[in-house]
């Protein structure tokens, strides 16, 4: 585990890079981002890759700030500025990893991790493939339609959308190497909100809700493997 401390406008935040399999800088590399509030932070990853070395690829998890403890995510999510800083640090940590490898690279993640995946694509686009799972670019809609934000935030919905949504920025990139997945019955990152947030891209839609998607380990692995092998 490699700890990364970052100074942000919201204060110091600590992320971490956990290498679960390493086959050299020329091997294909998967950078994985966990879900929001996922504790332990590697629950989905461990179910998806029970034998990491057997993949023949470098498997790296980025632990976002706040996920070193069960209640840490509540601290980083207490204010919008700190939440945005958390996302920025996770994106920067991804770029830190990709700068160290020469082989094919894939960035993926679930829910919050999917939003981080998409943000890295928009801001850096240095990976060969992106596979955001159960996410989109309409990040603010979670707090307006699924998990209500605090009343002051709900009273300023357009401000929340302006700070968290990044659908407009999505148009500044080519997306042939982006392969989103959404859940038809997802009540957190709703299909009706997130599918239109991918202009120019047609996401795959799995017949699952958010929690069933978390447990779809084999399907997640089968989705990621071809992108690592190309």
Fold and architecture overview:
The protein is an alpha/beta fold. It has a single domain, classed as Rossmann fold, CATH 3.40.50. It is 37% helix and 20% strand. It contains eleven helices and eight strands. The chain has a six-stranded mixed beta sheet with strand order 1-2-4-3-5-6, with helices on both faces. Strands 7-8 form a two-stranded parallel ribbon. Helix 3 packs across helix 4. The longest helix has 19 residues, at 80-98. It is globular, with a radius of gyration of 16 Å. The two termini are 28 Å apart.
Query: Approximately how much helix is present in the residues?
Result: 25-40%
The unreliable regions are none
Tally of structural domains: 1
Largest beta sheet: what is the strand line-up? 1-2-4-3-5-6
Into which percentage range does the β-strand content fall? 15-25%
| Large-scale geometry | globular
User: What's the count of strands?
Assistant: 8
User: Biggest sheet, open or closed, and with what strands and sense?
Assistant: 6 strands, mixed
CATH topology: Rossmann fold
Report the CATH superfamily.
Answer: Alpha/Beta hydrolase fold, catalytic domain
Q: Secondary-structure map with pairings?
A:
Blueprint: E1 2-8, E2 11-21, E3 29-33, H1 43-48, E4 58-63, H2 72-76, H3 80-98, E5 105-110, H4 112-123, E6 129-133, H5 141-146, H6 151-154, H7 157-164, H8 167-170, E7 181-183, H9 191-194, E8 204-206, H10 210-214, H11 217-229
Parallel strand pairs: 3-4, 3-5, 5-6, 7-8
Antiparallel strand pairs: 1-2, 2-4
